[in-house]
């Protein structure tokens, strides 16, 4: 039986391992450097099952998010993971956002996403406190606990006989005798192929394996608040702004989680460490890598004003509340309580552009997932099928 080593125990790595073990008849070892599964991007995820309306038609993100929306709901239901298809509103609050709302509706149609433009009165039937001139109602958006999805994947992998190792950081990779050898603190792991799903460290694993990827992972911290328990009634479901196409991220939004809490955010600031969840989390190595990469400076120049605004909002609860009040005017500064932040592993090119799609690269008996930010959790089971196909090509 062929043996594949999967590096990374977040939702993408676990989904890839499950696809290989359950559907391709492959023996699998999963190597996770932390002592728990889903410790980083997956464990700090907003819990949204995206519908797939934002992404360029025909892209990996568009195709895999739309298919993943269905497969993730099905997986959760089959494995006893709480899930709800609640829908969401994307709201235009200013006249100049109305044409962008129409463009978004057209993109949804191109991607096969059911999205209906509605007027303000109808939007308030879904969200009585919302402020808008018009909105898109996206019925297939859902919410789930991705940590619980990962636990279900771990359970199923155990039943399939997969070897699951935590505390197993990959320190070196080399090809030897037609196989791949991975050095870990517990010894050498030998496999017929390597799959790199290391998220925030995916580019480093690729370089250890002998690749020279053009893209570099730059970590962006997304900071969240949540509404106080007695103010959760202000938001019934999910409320998003119309995205500004000149900016790289969606903007702050309001999301009811599967446990009933309502999260608000995220903003987006450069993390000072690849796993930098707070301003005081600093890595000189990580900062030096960002500083040496020419794309970082080009991005900073392009979005200087936006970057300053995001940093100011990071330090000002009043500014954060004001951003949310554009969507729901009843939200006040005193309604917000700090919640856990997340760090997005975003691939960047030397010209300063952010890689817009999922990015996969191949090496000798290797498949590397080098860009898998949102909607990767939604699309994880579809990413897994794509990666497994590539693995079977190199075995």
Provide a descriptive summary of the structure in words:
- The structure is a single chain.
- Helix 2 (60-78) crosses helix 11 (376-394).
- The protein has two domains: 3-45 and 147-215 and 356-394, FAD/NAD(P)-binding domain, CATH 3.50.50.60; 82-141 and 218-348, D-Amino Acid Oxidase, subunit A, domain 2 (D-Amino Acid Oxidase, Chain A, domain 2), CATH 3.30.9.10.
- The protein has 395 residues and is α+β, with helices and mostly antiparallel strands.
- The chain has an eight-stranded mixed beta sheet, with helices on both faces.
- Helix content is 33%, strand content 26%.
- The model has no long low-confidence stretch (mean pLDDT 96).
- It has eleven helices and 23 strands.
- InterPro entries: FAD-dep_OxRdtase, FAD/NAD-bd_sf.
- Keywords: FAD, Flavoprotein, Oxidoreductase.
- This is L-2-hydroxyglutarate oxidase.
Distance between the terminal alpha carbons, to the nearest Å? Answer: 11 Å
CATH architecture of the largest domain: 2-Layer Sandwich
Broad shape:
globular
| Helix vs. strand class | alpha+beta
Using only C-alpha atoms, the radius of gyration works out to: 21 Å
Strand order of the largest sheet: 6-7-5-16-17-18-15-20
Largest sheet: 8 strands, mixed
Q: Would you count the extended β strands for me? A: 23
Quickly count the domains.
2
Brief descriptors of the model:
395 residues; alpha+beta; FAD/NAD(P)-binding domain; D-Amino Acid Oxidase, Chain A, domain 2; 2 domains; six-stranded mixed beta sheet; 11 helices; 23 strands; 33% helix; globular
């Amino acid at each position: 039986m062929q043996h594949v080593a999967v590096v990374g125990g977040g939702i993408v790595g676990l989904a890839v391992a499950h696809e290989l073990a359950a559907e391709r008849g492959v023996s699998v070892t999963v190597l996770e450097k932390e002592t728990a599964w889903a410790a980083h991007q997956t464990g700090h995820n907003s819990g949204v099952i995206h519908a797939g309306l934002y992404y360029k038609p025909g892209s990996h993100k568009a195709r895999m998010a739309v298919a993943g929306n269905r497969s993730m709901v099905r997986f959760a239901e089959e494995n006893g993971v709480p899930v709800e298809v609640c829908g969401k509103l994307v709201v235009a609050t200013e006249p100049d956002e109305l044409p962008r709302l129409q463009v978004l509706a057209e993109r949804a149609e191109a991607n096969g996403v059911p999205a209906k433009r509605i007027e303000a009165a109808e939007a308030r039937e879904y969200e009585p406190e919302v402020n808008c001139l018009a909105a898109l109602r996206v019925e297939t958006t859902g919410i789930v606990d991705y940590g619980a999805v990962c636990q279900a994947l771990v359970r199923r992998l155990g039943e399939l006989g997969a070897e699951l190792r935590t505390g197993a950081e990959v320190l070196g990779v080399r090809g030897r005798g037609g196989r791949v050898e991975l050095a870990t603190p517990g010894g050498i792991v030998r496999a017929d192929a390597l799959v790199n799903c290391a998220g925030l460290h995916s580019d480093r694993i690729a370089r250890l394996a002998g690749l020279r990827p053009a893209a570099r992972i730059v970590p962006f911290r997304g900071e969240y608040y949540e509404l106080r328990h007695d103010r959760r009634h202000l938001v019934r479901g999910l409320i998003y702004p119309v995205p500004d196409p000149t900016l790289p991220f969606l903007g702050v939004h309001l999301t009811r989680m599967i446990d009933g809490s309502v999260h608000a955010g995220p903003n987006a600031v450069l993390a000072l460490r690849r796993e930098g969840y707070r301003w005081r989390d600093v890595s000189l190595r990580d900062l030096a890598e960002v500083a040496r990469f020419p794309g970082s400076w080009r991005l900073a120049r392009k979005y200087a004003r936006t970057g300053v605004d995001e940093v100011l909002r990071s330090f000002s609860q009043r500014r954060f509340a004001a951003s949310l009040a554009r969507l729901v005017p009843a939200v006040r500064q005193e309604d917000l309580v700090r919640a856990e932040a997340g760090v997005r592993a975003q691939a960047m090119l030397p010209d300063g552009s952010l890689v817009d799609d999922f990015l996969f690269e191949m090496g000798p008996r290797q498949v590397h997932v080098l860009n898998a930010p949102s909607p990767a959790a939604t699309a994880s089971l579809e990413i897994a099928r794509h990666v497994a196909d590539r693995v079977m090509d190199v075995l």
